[in-house]
Amino acid sequence: MDAKAEDAPAMAGEARPIRVVVAKPGLDSHDRGAKVLARALRDAGMEVIYTGLHRTPEEIVRAAVDEDADVVCLSLLSGAHPVLVPKIVRLLREAGLTETVVMLGGTIPDDDVPAMRAAGVAAVFGPGSDLSEIVRAVREHVARARAGAAGA
Amino acid sequence: MPRVPDALEPRAQAAPARPAGARPPVEDFARRLVAGERFALARAITWVESGDRAGAELMRLVYPHTGRAWVVGLTGAPGTGKSTLLAKLAARFAALGRSVGVVAVDPSSPVTGGALLGDRIRWTPPETGDVFFRSLASRGRLGGLSSAAFDAVRLMDAAGREVVIVETVGAGQGEVDVARLAHTTVVALAPGTGDEVQAAKAGIMEIGDLFVVTKADRPGADECVRDVRLQLGLSPEARGRREGFGRAQGPAGEEPTWFPPVVKVSARTGEGLDRLVRLLAEHRAYLEASGRFGRRAALDDVLRMEDEFRRLAFERARRAAERAGAWAEAVERLGRREIDPATAARLAWSGTEPFPQAGSAAGVEGADGRAEGPK
Ligand code: B12
Ligand SMILES: Nc1nc2c(ncn2[C@@H]2O[C@H](COP(=O)(O)OP(=O)(O)OP(=O)(O)O)[C@@H](O)[C@H]2O)c(=O)[nH]1
Ligand SMILES: [Mg+2]
């Protein structure tokens, strides 16, 4: 992993490490992207909980609650995102995780992105995305969510 | 009773330091936690783990509700099958109607502070029952349990979790810490890895209440069981004792005894699981019969108190030494290699006298402030 300077831990500004749940929902066995992502976030100083493959929406939400995750990263390369993603976001909010950031990646056609955003996904990253770009987005969204939680 | 210094007393007035309206009142949260609310427990662990003042306050409020949970530690070399076994055990306890908590600890990277917490990969929530599963990074406690792991266990206890299982990688300090925290320590060893020899070297054999030879579906499990028995020394039979919970004639009459059993388990086939669960229950019965159940937790509490006292004492003494200039002088002379580290420490220490009076406002404030960031 090429640990670039800007990927170095921004611990000073962050009161506590960002906690991320990286999840693979559904019957999708493409786990390379999720693993690459998990490692990149760890190398950026985050605490990453990887759920492993084939998780149901309920399992992912349970993990997010118990782990008190700042971010839930969903990786889908199966084409099942139109069904699974809105369901997961809804269950998260129902479980009281109103501030938890949801990010999405994998093979998500451009045409589907607006619907995903409308469902409550903060950002979508497709194949070939730059990892430091993803790290930056995670930090930004978490900073905003934490500020929101503190100000609300 | 001697006056308790302010630093050790909760101070409600200290709260306004953080943004107003940021959170529900801590008292409210404590109530929800004790009532067993999942979200409150999850958030409480975060607070305590990040050294948040609200966390300290919360811990104070819920502590009277602790002391009931049975804490089972699970340790062993990397990859021995701890998480897989833990999933099976947690499911068994849950199926028996127990409310279960899991604390799975993995190391933080000393370089970036990040961590990949992978124990959840082996985890599937059981069909029946309720298990709260929390992954924790060791955060600076190299190879050992973070203080947050101790706190997470207490919080789960307060939240009514009857059995709390703690998984930690047996590397260095980790297994010693877990044995200190747990009522029952389970050491996992995998066949064909030479684990039993490593374990003996690392002193693990002394801390295990039960030894599990994992992956019994693989070749070499029986040999591994035999080797572990050998490492444990004289067999229970040779000592006229029973493996597990027995009784023996002591100076004060018949006394409960425990001899660590060795169990062969395959998480894959389920072989040996029944026996392991039975033996765990036996150990629990032994703990009760011998009075160790309550004593173990009390002992750990005192050790935790010592840890905190040591920290407070260090902060206060260091500040006194700094004020007197002795700290800087010692560091400088050490840097010139005029004196050795031990002499430098004594020189700095000489600057702490006269030691600041107990409870002096200035001393206490400073000790508090300094505690925020590791030096
Ligand atoms: C390698 C691969 C496989 C490997 C998987 C190995 C593994 N363990 O992962 C194997 C050979 C097993 C495989 C099998 C199959 N595959 Co395949 N596979 C691929 C391939 C070529 C590359 C995927 C990959 O690993 N990329 C490298 C990683 C690093 O990239 P990534 O996952 O996209 O992740 C990046 C970003 O997307 C992002 N990211 C990913 N997740 C997340 C999450 C968040 C929150 C964020 C912020 C970012 C993020 O970050 C990463 C870095 O940039 C793709 C083609 C493609 N263009 O993607 C097809 C592809 C995904 N496979 C496809 C198919 C159809 C299959 C099979 C059904 C084939 C079959 N008929 O058997 C099976 C299904 C397996 C299963 N049960 O799921 C289709 C899926 C079509 C669809 N979406 O509807 C694809 C798109 C090929 C195609 N064009 O048809 N496959
Ligand atoms: N054959 C067999 N393999 C097992 C068994 N239990 C675990 N394994 C495998 O052993 C590997 C490690 O299992 P884990 O449960 O993750 O081991 P661990 O001790 O928790 O690992 P760390 O937390 O990384 O130290 C995995 O590939 C499991 O599938 C078993 O009973 N039989
Ligand atoms: Mg594990």
CATH topology of chain A: Rossmann fold
* Average pLDDT, all residues of chain A: 89
Describe the oligomeric state of these chains in a short phrase: heterodimer
Structural class of chain A: alpha/beta
Helix content of chain A: 40-55%
Q: What is the name of the CATH class of chain A?
A: Alpha Beta
Distance between the termini of chain A: 38 Å
CATH architecture of chain A: 3-Layer(aba) Sandwich
- Chains forming the largest contact: A-B, 35 and 33 residues
Structural class of chain B: alpha/beta
Number of domains of chain A: 1
Number of strands of chain B: 10
CATH homologous group name of chain A = Cobalamin-binding domain
The CA-CA distance between the termini of chain B, in Å, is 34 Å
Low-confidence stretches of chain B: 1-21, 358-375
Low-confidence runs of at least 5 consecutive residues of chain A: 1-14
Average per-residue pLDDT of chain B, rounded, comes to 82
Number of structural units classed as domains of chain B: 3
Explain the overall architecture.
The complex is a heterodimer of chains A (152) and B (375). With 152 residues, chain A is of the alpha/beta class. Chain A has one domain: 3-Layer(aba) Sandwich (Rossmann fold). Chain A has helices spanning 32-43, 57-66, 81-94, 113-119, 131-151; strands at residues 19-23, 47-50, 71-76, 101-106, 123-125. Chain A has a 5-stranded parallel β-sheet, with helices on both faces. The longest helix of chain A is centred in the last third of the chain and has 21 residues, at 131-151. Residues 1-14 of chain A have low confidence and may be disordered. Chain B is α/β, with parallel strands linked by helices and 375 residues long. Chain B has 3 domains: 1-9 and 23-65, no CATH class; 66-290, P-loop containing nucleotide triphosphate hydrolases (Rossmann fold), CATH 3.40.50; 305-372, no CATH class. Chain B is built from 13 helices and 10 strands. Chain B has helices at 26-34, 38-49, 53-62, 82-95, 147-158, 174-181, 195-202, 221-231, 273-289, 292-323, 326-335, 341-350, 361-370; strands at residues 70-76, 100-106, 115-117, 131-137, 163-169, 184-189, 210-213, 244-250, 253-259, 262-264. In chain B, the strands form 2 sheets. A 7-stranded parallel β-sheet of chain B has the order 4-2-5-1-6-7-10, sandwiched between helices. Chain B has a two-stranded antiparallel ribbon with strand order 8-9. In chain B, helix 7 (195-202) links the parallel strand 6 (184-189) and strand 7. In chain B, helix 10 crosses helix 13 (361-370). The radius of gyration of chain B is 23 Å and the shape is globular. The A-B interface holds A 3, 8-9, 11, 15-17, 19, 38-39, 41-52, 59, 62-63, 65-68, 95-96, 149-152 and B 18-19, 21-22, 38-39, 42-43, 45-46, 49-50, 108-109, 112-118, 120-125, 132-135, 137, 139. Residues 78-84, 119, 122, 169, 214-215, 217-218, 266-268 of chain B line the site of guanosine-5'-triphosphate. Magnesium ion is lined by residues 82-83, 119, 167 of chain B.
